[in-house]
Specification:
The chain has 236 residues and is α/β, with parallel strands linked by helices. It has a single domain, classed as Copper homeostasis (CutC) domain (TIM Barrel), CATH 3.20.20. The chain has an 8-stranded parallel β-barrel with strand order 1-2-3-4-5-6-7-8, surrounded by 4 helices. A two-stranded antiparallel sheet has the order 9-10. Helix 3 packs parallel to helix 4. The chain is globular, with a radius of gyration of 17 Å.
Length: 236
């Protein structure tokens, strides 16, 4: 039997979550500041998004933009955020932490996974994987910790089938490998060809007003055409 196709959409707003299940989406990654790669959402935002959709919502745990080497204060903040977000109805968290040398921060990841499991939350390790040293060893440690999946581009700025194929071979079905960064309907066939069955993308577009002299006009809208095309290509 072929592996089940899974599609995850990253978003910031509750209104963008409404009706996603009817479009064929399987899961939501909730973030603040997608323009900075996604940061930890607020308690209120998480509550509203969970209320807006029957889909499982995974919340980002990332206190700032930039690298994934976090101070003790930032790590404490992430654990506090996890504790609060666990009360919103989310189903999991998206997290990643490295040492200053680029290795997996095993001590902190063990703390995060233990706390997540206490609240029956799933865990996705995000694209810190793409910039870590010794990724094959990191993958094995994440399996040992009980992490559900790894979100990766295959070690390139945009999804690379060769890098994803290598990661899938290391995983050998023991952990889900989810392709993210530049995923759209056009690249899905090449990703499926190497065995990718889980896809992650952001699907929104900016709608601006002609009169924006103060810089306050415009809004992000959900890109339904991109989502529909992705779902069609992934499930073809």
């Amino acid at each position: 039997m072929a592996d089940r196709i899974e599609i995850e959409i990253a978003l910031e707003e509750a209104r963008h979550a409404e009706g996603l299940h009817a479009l064929g989406v399987d899961r939501i990654e909730l973030c603040e500041n997608l323009a900075e790669g996604g940061l930890t959402p607020s308690f209120g935002r998480a509550r509203e998004v969970v209320a807006a959709t029957p889909l499982p919502v995974y919340a980002m745990l990332r206190p700032r933009a930039g690298n994934f080497h976090y101070s003790s204060s930032e790590q404490h903040q992430m654990l506090l955020d996890l504790e609060m977000l666990s009360k919103t109805g989310i189903r999991g968290v998206v997290v990643g932490a490295l040492t200053g040398e680029g290795l997996l921060d095993q001590r902190f990841m063990a703390l995060v996974t233990d706390k997540a499991k206490q609240h029956n939350l799933g865990i996705t390790f995000h694209r810190a994987f793409d910039v870590c040293k010794d990724p094959e060893s990191v993958l094995q440690t994440l399996i040992d910790l009980g992490v559900e999946r790894i979100l990766t581009s295959g070690f390139q700025p945009k999804v690379d089938p060769h890098g994803l194929a290598k990661t899938l071979s290391w995983a050998s079905g023991r952990i889900q490998i989810q392709a993210g960064s530049g995923v759209n309907a056009e690249v899905v066939p090449s990703l499926k060809e190497v065995g990718v069955t889980a896809f992650h993308c952001t699907a929104r577009k900016w709608s601006a007003s002609d009169d924006d002299s103060f810089g306050f006009e415009g809004e992000w809208k959900r890109d339904e055409d991109k989502i529909k095309a992705l779902v069609t290509a992934a499930r073809a």
